[in-house]
Amino acid sequence: MTQFDFKSLSDLAGQRLIFGFEGQSLNSELKYLIKEYRVGGIILFRSNIESADQLRRLCMNARKYALDQGLPNLFVAVDQEGGQVARLRKPFTEFPGNPHIKTIDDAREFARITASELSDMGINMNMAPVMDVAPPDVDSIMKDRVFSGGANRVSRLGTAVIQGLQKGGVMAVAKHFPGIGRTLKDSHFFLPELNAELSDLKQTDLVPFEAAKKAQVSGIMLSHILYPKLDPDWQASLSKTIAYDLLRQDMEYQGLVMTDDLDMKAISHDMDTCIHRILIAQIDMALVCHAGPNITEAREAMMRYLEKDGELFESGCACVKRILAAKERFLV
Prior knowledge:
Blueprint: H1 9-14, E1 17-19, H2 28-35, E2 41-44, H3 52-68, E3 75-78, E4 80-82, E5 85-86, H4 104-121, E6 125-126, H5 151-167, E7 171-177, H6 198-203, H7 207-214, E8 219-222, H8 240-250, E9 256-261, H9 271-280, E10 285-288, H10 293-308, H11 310-330
Helix pairs in contact: 4-5, 5-7, 9-10, 10-11
Protein name: beta-N-acetylhexosaminidase
Organism: Desulfobacter postgatei 2ac9
GO molecular function: beta-N-acetylhexosaminidase activity
């Protein structure tokens, strides 16, 4: 990994992308993404998983292929929260989800078993835990995915999961910054708004993310929610004000910052605009989770903007340094 020339344009762009793909093996599509697009990571869904043996072969073969192409080891990510969002089902352990995690011991047990099962498959990144706070008087879209209770309880349980996953060699990604627990609409289908003042967010929604930072969480995922009092023009996943000014500068978070899936309906902008905004906001990694033209458009836009804008190129080098540091720490 130390010999990786991350200043080459293709590699600089590719390492900042996590893509989904179709199939259950190291097929021609996946080889193309790794070899030609130089991707930093892939993300798995249920359609990619048939059995434990098949999944292990897929992950190990993909990671080896990346190394054979002169790339750093590959992020292999999955959403394994438990409950309704769990890509790995039986024979893997099926947990009922965050609302059923009541104690620190519960959180540690979930994290220990999940980390063991994921790492045994060759998966090294879990898009969990959810660190959103859902007030009891709000019919939150997240009510079936959050830890129950207020910000302090979410912080305690969430950091126990973070520490347990990472102790087991799996990177944890806290989501969905700066908090979507009070939203009523699903960003898979709509662009929700949370019209909260920053002072209000600091008292509730941001508390678990501050705790996650102190627990040295590997990554934080940005929401696709619009927060008009913070940025009236751009949702968090495309907002320099939220991703850079608030998270990176004010909160001094030094780990990886990544978008939620740019294929979701909350993103109505074209991929060129999305990538430009991501680069301006110095967001480390962009997720495009489904096979299709958006993958090619994202990579081409990333290449184009890095080539023509010296400032974006330089800040991009800093992003890739963070990515490589995370890979050095967790991917062996």
